[in-house]
Amino acid sequence: MFSTLIGMPCCVFLFINGTMLFTLRSKLVFRETSRYILLYNLLFADTAQLAFSQLLYIFATCRIMLTYPVCGVLCMFTTLTNDISPLTLVVMSLERYVAVCYPLRHATIATIRNTAVAIIVVWAISLLNVFTRILLLLNFPFKDLESLQMTDVCSDIQMLLDPITDHYDKAYTYCLFVSATVAIISSYIGVMIAARSASADKASAHKARKTLLLHLVQLGLSLFSTMHISIVQSLSTIMQRLAIVRIKSVFYVFIYILPRCLTSLIYGLRDQTIRPILLYHLCCRLTLSCPSRG
């Protein structure tokens, strides 16, 4: 029953995210505007991460033991989608910085082509990290094992088979999030400085500052979801297994599920162009009181 209660909100948010993805492809303005294209990439990564995490959670709840190759593939997909989110947040922050600080050049910088190149770079960096982890795993002496069948449930922790992989994972994570934090904070400071200019659009700058703060909150939640592995490992040495399982379940809800749903809730309800269309699709095309815009 406990596992069912945890799984139900995940299914609900998967539906909301799926509806948001459909909404972002339903209008031409969403497909040809840089920030909406980046939002689609962020939401796609969050939805995929949510789906893979739920799949691993079901395997863990049902005590389904996978083989190392199958678990490795699932964990690599999880790692890939988890890396894309902070990198996309950085690109979105830079796009907002350009929109406020260089409004006359924004249209020539934030083109569809440049946005596509930025997304390709984001995916390339994430894939490079995945390939590096695969190479490190291939160095592990699997032939010395009696069987490739895992003795515990599949998780990221179980795939840290040697100290080198663990050290690399921590170094990459710290480097990624420090760089992303510096980029977002720098963009926020740049927007604040631009807002003090007499020629700046005060309303646009204020909205951009709020958006960058939301990016920073999302980045913090994403960082916490990555670092919770170390927290669980520390608690496992002083607590019983049943307590650890329950703590992991709580972490799963508040660290994995909720942050992956913030993208739809925050951007879907804040954006005046997306909100009426999103509500229209969520309510199964019922007549809404709010008029449609855009």
From TrEMBL:
The chain crosses the membrane at residues 6-24, 36-60, 66-94, 115-138, 171-191, 212-231, 251-269. The keyword Transcription regulation does not apply. Residues 16-267 form the G-protein coupled receptors family 1 profile domain. Gene3D superfamilies: Rhodopsin 7-helix transmembrane proteins. Its main location: membrane. GO terms for molecular function: G protein-coupled receptor activity; odorant binding; olfactory receptor activity. Keywords: Membrane, Transmembrane, Transmembrane helix. It holds the Pfam family 7tm_1. One of its GO terms (cellular component) is membrane. It is found in: Membrane. It comes from the Eukaryota. This is Olfactory receptor 1078-like. It comes from Seriola lalandi dorsalis. The lineage of its organism: Eukaryota, Metazoa, Chordata, Craniata, Vertebrata.
